[in-house]
Amino acid sequence: MPCAKLGGCGLERRLRERSGCKRTRFRTRPCCSPEAIPQPVQRALLQTPSSRRLRSQTKMTARHCSHRARSIDRLAHVQASGHLEEQTPRTLLKNILLTAPESSILMPESVVKPVPAPQVVQASRQESGRGSLELQLPELEPPTTLAPGLLALGRRKQRLRLSVFQQGVDLGLPPSQEPHGNADASSLTSSLNLTFATPLQPQSVKRPGLARRPPTRRAVDVGTFLQDLRDTSLALAPPDTVLEDTQPFSQPLVGRSPSVHHSLPCPSHSGAKDVERAASRRTWSSGLGLQNNGAGKPAPFLAGKVEEVGALAMGFPNISSNISGEDVIEPLQNGVGEEAEERMEESLREVEKAAEAQGSARAEEPEGHIEVTEAEGSWGAVEAKEPEGSSGDEDTSGRTASPELASSTPEFLRARRLQFLETAPPPSTAVLPSEPPEPLSARLPPKPRIPGSRPRQDPYKTGLNHYAKLFSFYAKMPMEKKAVEMVEKCLDKYFQHLCDDLEVFAAHAGRKTVRPEDLELLMRRQGLVTDQVSLHVLVERHLPLEYRQQLIPCAFSGNTVFPAQ
Amino acid sequence: MALSTTVSQRKLIKRKAPRGFLKRVFKQRKPHLRLETNSDLLVHLNCLLLVHRLAEEARTNACENKCGVIKKEHVLAAAKVILKKSRG
């Protein structure tokens, strides 16, 4: 008996018992290739009888010629389908077999591989699973289609098999509608889909984090206003404007005091204008803000100002359009050293009075506006509210001040800050939702450039304080204040040594950048890292998880390692 | 990011590394050098371990003197020992 030639495995016997006529055909094959027997036997242990049969058959087929395998596969599929859900997988398989292109020699393998692979779940679900997988394919991205391929195909080029498999899958799509309803299949697919969705998630999660500012605030009028700006701006150097807008608090422009005065009133009133415009939801006002190249800044600025300037929004429509360069310049020349309120008043008046709109004025104003808005925000939202009836100071200023505007706006901001720092910082800062005012107020203390100690001490001390607190925590005992200061001194000295050592190590390696290897060498020399205790151990012990992940390379799904090496 | 964790000592300990501070200090001292991103964290680790050792040593000193409070002298003596040891 051919059965006797098979191993004495009980499974085989069981197989024989359940064998149909077709089995005999396959029984002979194992004799030819005894190696084929143990594997199917092993697999049979895991699976249902139908799957066993299928597996054994498919295994055998795999060992043999491709053409023979193909026929066997078909038979296997037919047999397998017979035990599956009624008709659906069968029709599916039949369709696949009938319509699948014959050219691919790998076809049988692809058919064979996916069959044994998902068999781990259940044989009956395989076809439906595959069918539902196929359904999922159009929904999900290509990576999901890799799932069955990856699962099944271990041997050869996965791409080739996938393409082949995909063809079959796509062909089998129409008839595979029914297994879609299978709960198991859906669960299988869902589970499969889930596994392949995970690598996508971190990427998708990263994106929202990068998109900080909603770009929706951009107005349509930016283009026109920019054109106006360029057309009318005489001495306005684009780089200056860019510099101003993007970094209104940039230091290099501090030195020009006279221009600052001129620019003071102009930006103030222009800023009021901007605020009011924002209140009135004027697109061009927002465009003004945008023109300043401050991008996100003016827009949120304006939005924030809306509340305060609501009162001022009355006569703005006329004013905004009518502001001329002269008007803008006028306030500039007005009393510079006055309080912000006065300036705001002036600016507001100017805004209101500017009956004749002019493009040039507009061009210059936007820059001033933004600066003013910023200044306003930082110092006197309240002030802006009061001065409704701005005086006619606008007339006094001349055109010459306008070119100064652009360059002097940052200086103006500077001067204003310095002046108004004592007057009204808190309320304005609190009101401002936008960023520039906040960093402005935060930077104010180190701003006054007292050479030496002040800017150095504060952030340095706070950093050392952080470690001193850790010291007191680790000590678990009460400490004197002097002891804490002592600790800070020690840390200071230690930092010096540390920097020197790192410099030496980096130079020794011929580098100018200090890298983690230098740090590891340093710790080894200090005796922290030994042959018994490695750096990774120390990292795991003392650093929180987020840092651990960044320092210690770890393998993630999708065959990736993070951080990449 | 765990900004702070409540400890049994009722103290809020920040587990966040002052990366900006470390980078700035390094830049101030060695402007011609550059510090890489992850080495920043290792510097922080180094400081943590140093502070740990210092604290242990200071506590030992204080206990030897039968003091319930860590005093300046204890810290000073501890610092001498530790800094000498970690010279490399």
TrEMBL record, chain A:
This protein's record includes keyword Cell inner membrane: no
Subcellular location: Chromosome, Centromere, Kinetochore; Nucleus
InterPro entries linked to this entry: CENP-T (IPR028255), CENP-T/H4_C (IPR035425), CENP-T_N (IPR032373), Histone-fold (IPR009072)
Major subcellular site: nucleus
All residue ranges annotated as the Centromere kinetochore component CENP-T N-terminal domain in the record: 40-419
GO molecular function: DNA binding; protein heterodimerization activity
A biological process from GO: mitotic cell cycle
Keyword Nucleus tagged: yes
Biased composition (Basic and acidic residues): 345-355, 362-372
Segments of this protein annotated with the region Disordered: 254-274, 337-409, 425-461
Pro residues: compositionally biased ranges: 425-449
Pfam families (alphabetical): CENP-T_C, CENP-T_N
Origin: domain of life: Eukaryota
Keywords annotated in UniProt: Cell cycle, Cell division, Centromere, Chromosome, DNA-binding, Kinetochore, Mitosis, Nucleus, Phosphoprotein
A single Gene Ontology CC term: kinetochore
Domain CENP-T/Histone H4 histone fold, first and last residues per copy: 459-555
Quaternary state and interactors: Component of the CENPA-CAD complex, composed of CENPI, CENPK, CENPL, CENPO, CENPP, CENPQ, CENPR and CENPS. The CENPA-CAD complex is probably recruited on centromeres by the CENPA-NAC complex, at least composed of CENPA, CENPC, CENPH, CENPM, CENPN, CENPT and CENPU. Identified in a centromeric complex containing histones H2A, H2B, H3 and H4, and at least CENPA, CENPB, CENPC, CENPT, CENPN, HJURP, SUPT16H, SSRP1 and RSF1. Interacts (via N-terminus) with the NDC80 complex.
Assigned protein family: Belongs to the CENP-T/CNN1 family.
Function: Component of the CENPA-NAC (nucleosome-associated) complex, a complex that plays a central role in assembly of kinetochore proteins, mitotic progression and chromosome segregation. The CENPA-NAC complex recruits the CENPA-CAD (nucleosome distal) complex and may be involved in incorporation of newly synthesized CENPA into centromeres. Part of a nucleosome-associated complex that binds specifically to histone H3-containing nucleosomes at the centromere, as opposed to nucleosomes containing CENPA.
Protein name: Centromere protein T
Classification of source organism: Eukaryota, Metazoa, Chordata, Craniata, Vertebrata
TrEMBL record, chain B:
The protein, known as: Centromere protein W
Cross-referenced Pfam families: CENP-W (PF15510)
Alphabetized InterPro entries for the sequence: CENP-W, CENP-W/WIP1, Histone-fold
Subcellular location per the Swiss-Prot or TrEMBL entry: Chromosome, Centromere, Kinetochore; Nucleus
Family (UniProt): Belongs to the CENP-W/WIP1 family.
Organism per entry: Balaenoptera acutorostrata (Common minke whale)
A single GO molecular function term of this UniProt record: protein heterodimerization activity
Domain of life: Eukaryota
GO cellular component, one term: kinetochore
Lineage: Eukaryota, Metazoa, Chordata, Craniata, Vertebrata
PANTHER family documented for this protein: CENTROMERE PROTEIN W
Oligomer status and interactors: Heterodimer with CENPT; this dimer coassembles with CENPS-CENPX heterodimers at centromeres to form the tetrameric CENP-T-W-S-X complex, which is a subcomplex of the large constitutive centromere-associated network (CCAN, also known as the interphase centromere complex or ICEN). Interacts with NPM1.
Chain's role: Component of the CENPA-NAC (nucleosome-associated) complex, a complex that plays a central role in assembly of kinetochore proteins, mitotic progression and chromosome segregation. The CENPA-NAC complex recruits the CENPA-CAD (nucleosome distal) complex and may be involved in incorporation of newly synthesized CENPA into centromeres. Part of a nucleosome-associated complex that binds specifically to histone H3-containing nucleosomes at the centromere, as opposed to nucleosomes containing CENPA.
Single biological process term from Gene Ontology: mitotic cell cycle
